[in-house]
Amino acid sequence: MASDPFQPPSEDLLDEPGAEAETRAFTITGDLHGERLDRALAALVPGFSRSYLQQLIEEGAVRLRGVASLKASQKVRAGEAGEIDLRPTPQSQAFLPEPLPLSVVHEDEHLLVIDKPAGLVVHPAPGNWSGTLLNALLARDTGARMLPRAGIVHRLDKDTSGLMMVARTRSAMERLVQMIAAREVSRQYMALAHRPWEGQAQRRVEAPIGRDPRNRLRMAVVDPQRHPGKPAATVFHRMQQAQAGCAVLCTLETGRTHQIRVHLAHIGHPLVSDPLYGGGPVAGLARQALHAFRLAFVHPVTGMPLVLHTPLPPDLRAAWAAWGLRYNESDWLTGQPSAAAA
């Protein structure tokens, strides 16, 4: 079965890999006893999509007890030893390096953290086959071509600005994927939303998100008993108040597509300049008022804690000022607005 080489990443995790040939050994753990082979491999070889793993199984690239296993549905047993040949995919050869400028906030031999500008698409897709972050990474680092999705482990929407992690080695990439899935990476955003905030300053929204059944171009809060959806949770903290709306600190607990945009719209506070979810323009702002300003995580290789942040971009500062709000970076970093700002 051939997988779609241009399928975008699912939520924050990478999807299709594209790496140099590599044979990797594995052993079926007790918790995977009786599972399908493709599901077991998805757990044992993190960072690779089931569709890619199914393709490798059907091509004879997976062996159990030294014998090729050709059926993804084959049941596995605890203690079984095997190996898998991880091969390049057409996608790994398809995209061309482009020397685009990148703002790097942190760099070491294992990973990068970049400050993505609004308007930069993360991954090639229909309508944006070039000029993406992935193209820029391929040009910046020759080793990126040997990694799934050039080391991209999570994504931001095209019109969301801010911090993104990018792996530079396979070991760092696999560990970052695991950390994101285990919610071990703290990601916080600045948002400007319509309508004054009411009630307590902090509110946690836990509501499943799936494709909007009435508009397939949008995501929506759904009833999982009626429509496909995944659990999603966001913590919102009102930082400042204006007559027309509010400035909100958003902390992700999960990483679903358009999660902050959907959850804010769901509670009656759509993002400014986000027409897809009901937000109107302010001060000529041409994109949704959302900025990923803070990342905090333990380095996947060295174990050292990293806390990185980037200030509010000029276009969002202008939108803040249009509503008479005062931006103070220290307030956002502490999560404690000054009395005057509240």
Notes on the protein architecture:
There is one protein chain. With 342 residues, the chain is an alpha+beta fold. The chain has eight helices and 15 strands. It has helices at 37-44, 50-58, 90-94, 133-140, 170-181, 259-266, 314-322, 329-334; strands at residues 22-27, 62-64, 67-68, 81-86, 104-107, 111-116, 161-167, 186-194, 202-206, 209-211, 219-221, 233-241, 245-252, 290-298, 305-309. The strands form three sheets. Strands 5, 6, 7, 8, 9, 12, 13, 14 and 15 form a nine-stranded mixed sheet that branches. Strands 1-4-2-3 form a four-stranded antiparallel sheet. A two-stranded antiparallel sheet has the order 10-11. β10 and β11 form a beta hairpin. Residues 1-20 have low confidence and may be disordered.
